[in-house]
Amino acid sequence: MYVLYTILASLVSFFILKWLKKRRYCTDLKRLDGKTALITGGSSGVGKETAVALATRGARVVIACRDAEKAEKAVREIRLRGRSLNVAHMELDLANMASVRDFCERFLQKEKRLDVLVNNAGEEEEEEEEEDVVAYPMPSVLDWTDDGFSMCFGVNHLGHFLLTNTLLPRLKECTPSRVVTLTCSNYKYQKLDFQDLNYNLLPFFTYSRSKLANIYFTQELARIGEAKGVTAYAVHPGFVQSGWTCHYSFLFRMLMQVVMWMFFVPCELGAQTVVYCAVSEAAAKHNGGYFVDCRPATLRPFARDSGVARKLWEASERLVKLV
Hints:
oxidoreductase, oxidoreductase activity, Retinol dehydrogenase 14, alpha/beta, Rossmann fold, NAD(P)-bd_dom_sf, single chain, eight-stranded mixed β-sheet
């Protein structure tokens, strides 16, 4: 009987866990015909699933990635799954500010519209392109960018900060337009230190600070852009099943695959809140908001400090030489 009870308890626990990780789908069927969406890091994970969803809705989709070979392969898949030939890729390295400026110049010359900007990508690992520089102690997390910034802060925040600001005039021309930036619930474990924005010691804390910076960036962008018809949203897509374990041993990868299958959500589900913020009129009522599971969520009080958001914006302008 003990064995039977153990099996039953295990099954009940399993189904409870499966229920707890169940996520909401974006049910808004709004079309995006005639509109252009730019997604950084769209060759895998949440970025690719977002690209498929927006292409299905009729948008012209441009994915910006560092690895041209992976991007081309992803474009073929997105076209097939999204039932659209209006998908393209452009080269972008968010760890290099010169590359960001060059990308923006090429994009503005080539693309006449920009209606949705999804700041999804971070550093692209050699073996697996992640949605952002992750919180786990992979060898590259504590590296430095070509411009001397910590990899997490430089890619997850500063690269997208420069990209968004340089493309902001085009977003204003195509209003109403939206900027969706991926963040993470890990933001709550750290606060910014303006004496050391380049903090680069413990991977988890380094990552958490960069995700908090994404939230402040969204809030200040919402304040600046609202009068011009540009709205901004920060999205926590949940903990998704991705390839972050690629640098570890085979046994560890197998163990984490089981853990991710039980507790994490597929990338398609992770992308739902991103799509929701890109298309939903209900989301538009929460400009500058933080979203989880296709609905606004409450931030910790320190993450709602408009003074800190403005201070970070001004510091970022100096760091990327916008002023």
